[in-house]
Design goal:
With about 325 residues, this protein is an alpha/beta fold. The protein has a domain at about 5-180 and about 220-245 and about 285-300: Rossmann fold (3-Layer(aba) Sandwich). The chain is about 45% helix and about 20% strand. The chain has 11 helices and 13 strands. The protein has helices at about 10-25, 40-50, 65-70, 90-95, 95-115, 150-170, 190-200, 220-235, 255-265, 290-295, 305-320, and strands at about 5, 25-30, 55-60, 75-80, 120-125, 170-180, 180, 205-210, 215, 220, 240-245, 250-255, 270-275. It has a 7-stranded parallel beta sheet, with helices on both faces. The protein has a two-stranded parallel ribbon with strand order 7-10. Strands 8-13 form a two-stranded parallel ribbon. Helix 6 (about 150-170) links the parallel strand 5 (about 120-125) and strand 6. Helix 1 (about 10-25) packs parallel to helix 2 and helix 5 packs parallel to helix 6. The longest helix has 22 residues, at about 95-115.
Length: about 325
């Protein structure tokens, strides 16, 4: 049994990971501050299935409350740090808030680990760190020095802080660059969820740009597989930080994404054209060579199948409301 401190436990990825870890017998200490970026009700619903499990304990707190956080960490704790202010576009309006939550928050987690003598940490980073000038498919050794949003900059800054401090703190760190995660419980503001909601209601959707921007969409079960593999990797990894891509292995253009959702819903989409949004990159495409070799990571869910599962979850959830 592994004792895992999971920050961001009430979020989309965090709640799925908590279920997976408790199902295999781990002890999970979940932490979340219910940031109002989206509704508390959604996050409480995310936690509903895992709250009743004997291996799960939940603490509502802000990771910047260092004293409260440190009380939860022991030398045998593995930290999975997913807590962050999310969203590329909102970060343009509130860069200071993103710096505080994402960068200072990561530093608070490092401080708690160092004080407790904890040596294993998995960090949830983002494909957005690659910016718009990294040659595809994106390799982990790309420079990643030109982020185009404050959100991306905070994720890269957190990676750099972890890289700098891991040797001094005796930490074995896996930084995971997630590529556009989707599936049941996806945040309601994200494109797949938002488009599904509008198309199911018979509403028109706005497509920003000409529809050729493409994303390496990654199904939630595959992401959780990768996080668990990284958690195990930290058992024997050398002190320091290493970076791994977790992607879906296929860049899907925006027009194709809309078509897949419409097909799963059985509707004909009404599409309005909008200007490309600031902070959005043209392409994300993961090179999975390293994560496959080191972590044994192999995404197994096709985009068509993943969308079918998401739409089925959405329809069932909507029918209960």
């Amino acid at each position: 049994m592994t004792r895992v401190l999971l920050t961001g436990a009430a979020g989309f990825i965090g709640s799925h990971l908590a279920e997976r870890l408790t199902a295999r017998g781990d002890e999970v200490i979940g932490v979340d501050n219910f940031d109002p970026f989206y509704s508390r009700q959604v996050k409480e619903s995310n936690l509903a299935a895992v709250r009743s499990r004997s291996g799960f304990a939940f603490h509502e707190l802000d990771i910047l409350d260092g004293a409260a956080l440190r009380r939860l960490v022991r030398p045998d704790t593995v930290i999975v740090h997913l807590a962050a202010k999310a969203g590329v576009r909102p970060s343009l309006a509130d860069p200071a808030g993103y710096l505080r939550a994402n960068v200072a928050g990561t530093q608070a987690v490092i401080d708690a680990a160092r004080e407790a003598g904890c040596s294993r940490l998995v960090f949830g980073s983002s494909s957005s760190v690659y910016g718009d000038d990294t040659p595809p498919p994106f390799r982990e050794d790309a420079a990643a020095v030109h982020p185009i949003s404050p959100y991306a900059a905070t994720k890269r800054a957190s990676e750099l802080i972890l890289e700098a401090l891991a040797p001094h703190a005796g930490l074995r760190v896996a930084a995971l660059r997630f590529f556009t995660v989707y599936g049941p419980r996806q945040r309601p503001d994200l494109a797949i969820h938002s488009f599904t909601r509008r198309l199911a209601a018979g509403e028109a959707i706005t497509m920003f740009g000409d529809g050729t921007d493409a994303r390496d969409y990654t199904y939630i079960d595959d992401i959780v597989d990768g996080v668990v593999a990284a958690l195990e990797w930290t058992t024997t990894a050398p002190v320091g930080m290493d970076v791994f891509n977790l992607g879906g292995n296929q860049a899907v253009p925006l027009r194709e994404m809309i078509a897949e959702i419409a097909a799963a819903l059985g509707v004909v989409p009404v599409i309005r054209q909008g200007e490309r949004q600031p902070g959005d990159v043209h392409l994300t495409a993961a090179d999975l060579t390293k994560s496959s070799r080191v972590l044994g990571y192999h995404p197994g869910t096709s985009f068509t199948e993943g969308i079918r599962r998401f739409v089925a979850w959405f329809q069932e959830t909507h029918a209960r409301q």
